Amino acid sequence: MNEFEQRLTEVENHFQHNDIDLGYRRLIDCVLDLADKSFYQEIIAYSDIYYNENSSNETKIAKAIQLVEKLKQATPPPYHTEDILLSTKNVEKAYNRRKFKLHPITFNLKSREVVGLVGENGNGKTTLLRLICGELKPTAGEIDYQFTTAKPFSYELKTKLVYVPQRIEVLYGNLMDNLQFTLTCYGIDSSENKLLAKVMLARLGLWPYKDLEWRQLSSGYKMRFELARTLLRRPKVLLLDEPLANLDILAQQIILEDLRYLSQSMRNPFGVILSSQQLYEVEKVSTEVIFLEQGKLKLQGNKQEEKADFTIIEVDVNNTKEELLTAFSSLDLKEIKFNGGSYIAYFDASISMNQIFAAIGNSTLQVKYIRDISKSSRRFFVN
């Protein structure tokens, strides 16, 4: 089974298990990978069914499976390897009129990777993004763009390396006109233009709003639209500064999940660096997390491979600290402290979450919330 067949099988499984929303988005990804106008038309027709309030789930699933069967007969798209897109080598930035300094940062970004850039406000996240995109020049160190021979700070580089700031630019006109204009600027002005614009609107959850003016969108949907417009440019590197700031919790999860899936495109893969204060959600989709504190690198590494010195949990209970200590008395508890709403408990690294759950189950604790933060950058915020 090749990569494309495997992806189609996953889409089929989503629909068969009634995960219609995820199956729909992943189905569009497969259509985009094929880059075939006839399949663009098919998924547009299916989108009318998907968003029709009178369409039953059974109809949506059946029609989707029919389209999957057609996609299985198509020639699979090429699969590009995961090459290094850019490297930063001891990049620093000092400001003459400010005391703040970004200390040496070194990391690689590969195609299909999502690098999460986390830390509190004013710790250098935006500075690092602006250095990479060429809006700022580093005081020391260098940035090596390996996906192009274009010179730093050139227009040619910025066509493939796209920076989306937290405050996006104001646009005029309706969504379709803006997307079609973007496609025309990048050489797609045939019959494919309108089809591809519609497909991308569907992919980013904007299908019900395709006839609206940009100014009529909420701030969260404006960010979705900016992503749609950006992805039509087929970037190699996508830099996002606080893309989750104006989104609700569910929308944050969907956008991050979409970025991970879209970056793994078979035909047009790209790498993502995104800054955010939504630690848990970013860590779920990131292949690497860079944590900045006062301009210094506090944490860098793959969250699956990082070794923790302690098993650390964050727990919120309707109990006193003494009752919590009693519940954990049989475990090797090193420290427990209150963090303004929840407790942070540090156990010896040999203590597993299963043991902690067992201790809670054998107690009278009324747990409202519990989370393992042993490998999460969240632990730096609660120290």
TrEMBL record:
It holds the Pfam family ABC_tran. The keyword Transmembrane does not apply. CDD domains: ABC_DR_subfamily_A. Keywords: ATP-binding, Nucleotide-binding, Transport. Residues 86-319 form the ABC transporter domain. The keyword Signal does not apply. Gene3D superfamilies: P-loop containing nucleotide triphosphate hydrolases (3.40.50.300). One of its GO terms (molecular function) is ATP binding. This is ABC-2 type transport system ATP-binding protein. It comes from Algoriella xinjiangensis.
